[in-house]
Amino acid sequence: MASIFTKIIQQEIPCEKIYETESEIAFLDISPWSYGHTLVVPKHEVAKLEELSVEEATALMTSLQTVARAISNAYDGADYKVLLNNGENAGQEVPHVHFHVIPCPKGFFFNSRNRYNYAEGEMAQTGEKIRSFLK
Ligand code: 5GP
C-alpha cells in the first residue's frame, strides 16, 4: 500500500507544498515541532535512507540544503534541526524516508512531546513565507 507521503506526492492528499523537483517534494509537517517544520521526501518510496541509490540520496541532500536555507532565511537566519528517524526503533512513524527540518529560533526549546497546531490560514501563510525565500 502506498505511504501517506506517496499519496501526498500523487495529490490524493493535500499538503502545504514548499518545494518540488523531479525526485523530491517538501511540505509543511501537519503537526509541527515548531512553525515552519518541513518534511523533505524523495518521491521514490523506500523506508530507509540506505535503500535509496547514491544518485537519489545525493539529489535528496541537495533539496534538503535548498529547503533548509530558505527556512532559515524565512525565520531571520534561525538555526534549525535536521532529523531523520531511520526505522521504527528510531521513532519513524511513516515508513517512507524523510528529513525533518525544524526551525529553532532564538529561545526555542525543542521538546519532542510539544507539537504545535496551525491556526486557520496560518499554514498557508507559513508556506508562502518560506516559498518566497526560494525565489
Ligand atoms: P516520523 O515519525 O515518521 O519521522 O515523522 C512523520 C511525520 O509526518 C510526523 O512529524 C507527522 O506529523 C507527519 N505527518 C503524518 N501524516 C501527515 C500528513 O498527512 N500530512 C503532513 N503534512 N504531515 C504528516
Structural notes for this entry:
The protein is an alpha+beta fold and 135 residues long. It has a single domain, classed as HIT-like (HIT family, subunit A). It has three helices and five strands. The protein has helices at 4-9, 54-74, 122-132, and strands at residues 17-20, 24-28, 38-42, 79-83, 99-104. Strands 1-2-3-5-4 form a five-stranded antiparallel β-sheet. The N and C termini lie far apart (35 Å). Bound molecules: guanosine-5'-monophosphate.
Quick overview of this protein structure:
This protein is an alpha+beta fold and 135 residues long. It is 28% helix and 19% strand.
Labels describing this entry:
binds guanosine-5'-monophosphate; 135 residues; 3 helices; 5-stranded antiparallel sheet; 28% helix; alpha+beta
The CATH topology annotation reads as HIT family, subunit A
**Low-pLDDT residue spans:** none
Output mean pLDDT.
97
| Biggest β-sheet strands, sense, barrel | 5 strands, antiparallel
Which architecture would the CATH scheme give at its second level?
Answer: 2-Layer Sandwich
Q: Could you give the order of strands across the largest sheet?
A: 1-2-3-5-4
Detail the topology: elements first, then pairings.
Blueprint (H helix, E strand, L loop, with lengths): L3 H6 L7 E4 L3 E5 L9 E5 L11 H21 L4 E5 L15 E6 L17 H11 L3
Antiparallel strand pairs: 1-2, 2-3, 3-5, 4-5
Bound molecules: guanosine-5'-monophosphate (5GP).
